[in-house]
Design a protein that fits this description.
homodimer; alpha/beta; Nucleotidyltransferase, domain 5; five-stranded mixed β-sheet; about 40% helix
């Protein structure tokens, strides 16, 4: 029996699965942040090791040395080469002797939603990226360039727009919004009626102190507030602009001759109203395949592992892998 | 003879002047970054000390102990109180016994352009702020909230938009722009025709590495590139949006009953085409006073010093101060 490891190493957390050649997930494990580019090679290797050890623990009957391949899905390309030499000592410690190979995280995300070889993927969480998949490989990627250079419509972008709208409200330049008390509360800023010597509310000064006192990326944590009050005009406008940007991102990679499913992942893109708006827009402009929602790239890492081992992943194998993975997640 | 010190302590550099009660500038000096909020109290005090020592060196006949007041114009309000106790040891070392008093940098900028007690100020350099001045005091401030929370139309904002436009061009999502070679050159990125495994130009990856490898604020240094090619549609659109935002910022503080000059400062707002566009827009909407361009808040720090000493700064005294300061600058 063929045994493989599929790993989905992300900037927030890492997941690994042990699977067999017929698409049965034997066990899954979790670890911390596993991206060697953003987190450093040693912490990433440790997080991935934790996840792999967790997956192996479900199947003590499987000899780690009998695993024939390791597929590592992650963003940011290959540090030190496509076989991840920085992960070798960690795998050796676990008794895993198989070679590893890095694959694009976006491809794993896409393959978590479908076994079709062609289609489109959209991930909008903290960042936003779209991908065109052709013949089971990434054909084109758009955006995913991070909070400073791109990612319009992402969680960071929404949180940033929210914070700016609240600052404009408190500064008297922008319209009143129910986001203001929500954002001040989320950032631990006490609202006050006090006015400072520049004729402005003291709450504004406290907001400035709180925002510049933390990493800019913390603004992404404000994004869910945009969905809290559907009657608020400021929130509604920000969400509508995000929806339009994410639809545009899918259309940036779409070509008429390539049809196939649209796989959607990430905390923003999977918000029901965002997903519906994006799907409505792209359908009207020719992207008409079925829509699949995914939580992460774990199933897809398994799908890619199977394919790299020469196994054709058909509907039956895909369904088995998706269902056995779901049951292991509990 | 009354002797006073006026200091304009900024986030980029610091200027100080020694002046007499009739508005004669006896000497000016310069120092480094002098904002205790952003630069720390000790470096700021040292920079201010350097500037004051430079100003005093022009007039060895003036006893530092005979100086009766120190006016310190700076952003960010009063650390440790309006009399800047953190500056006391530095002044003592220079033999200056006079009390100091912090004043808003925007007020000094305004008073550098006019002796009128009422009017409006607009500063757009790295950041952007507008101010309404009434009776020689700040009546209302708008924006100046920094690169994350505000400052639309500022040098940071323009540089950031430029970088995003170049990223979108290289990513195939946005229109081609002559900004691309200019920005890559400015950031030390070598253009290449090489394509990476995601189907994107390798130049994009190098841009990402360069931008995220430095402080976000470095993007402000790209702003001048927006004015280089007036035939480039992408540049033109970014500059036009900045102009509209800066005009809106003036209108945010404007009220019909307060007339007076508009004083304009900062590297963006004093660009001829930006100034003309802003002035054209605000004139059409009721802000019709004369427009004065200033380089910094040094003359204004002197004006405020005179006023706090009980001297009425009329046109004669103002002109003398502006002219003697200009001749000291050389």
């Amino acid at each position: 029996m063929l045994h493989l490891l599929g790993i989905d190493a992300g900037g927030t957390s890492t997941r690994a699965m042990l699977l067999t050649g017929d698409g049965t997930c034997l066990g899954i494990g979790r670890g911390g942040r596993g991206n060697p580019v953003s987190d450093g090679v040693e912490p990433a290797a440790a997080a991935i090791g934790t996840a792999v050890a967790g997956a192996l623990s479900f199947a003590p009957e499987v000899q780690p040395a009998a695993i024939t391949a390791v597929t590592l899905a992650m963003a940011g390309g290959s540090i030190g080469g496509p076989d991840a030499p920085w992960l070798r000592p960690t795998l050796d410690d676990l008794g895993v002797r198989a070679p590893s190979r890095i694959e694009p995280d976006l491809l794993a995300m896409f393959a978590s939603g479908t076994h079709e070889p062609d289609g489109y993927g959209l991930v909008a969480g903290t960042g936003s990226t779209a991908v065109r998949v052709r013949g089971g490989e990434v054909d084109l990627t758009a955006d995913g360039l991070g909070w400073l250079l791109g990612d319009k419509g992402s969680g960071f972008w929404i949180g940033h727009q929210i914070a700016r709208a609240v600052a404009a409200h408190l500064d008297g330049r922008g319209p009143a919004t129910s986001l203001t008390p929500a954002v001040l509360l989320a950032l631990g800023v006490t609202e006050t009626a006090e006015i400072d010597r520049n004729g402005r509310t003291a709450s504004l000064g406290h907001l400035v102190t709180a925002v510049y006192g933390a990493s800019p990326l913390r603004l992404a944590s404000l994004a869910p507030l945009a969905f809290a009050d559907t009657a608020d005009a400021v929130s509604t406008e920000i969400v509508a602009e995000a929806e339009a940007a994410l639809a545009e991102l899918v259309l940036d990679v779409a070509v008429p001759e390539l049809t196939g499913p649209l796989v959607v992942g990430g905390g923003v893109a999977t918000q029901p109203r965002v997903r519906e708006a994006v799907v409505g827009t792209v359908r009207a402009r020719g992207v008409t395949g079925p829509v699949h929602r995914v939580d992460d790239g774990l199933v897809g890492a398994g799908v890619i592992a199977l394919r790299r081992a020469g196994i054709l992943v058909d509907a039956e194998i895909f369904t088995r892998l998706a269902e056995t993975t779901a049951s292991r997640r509990g």
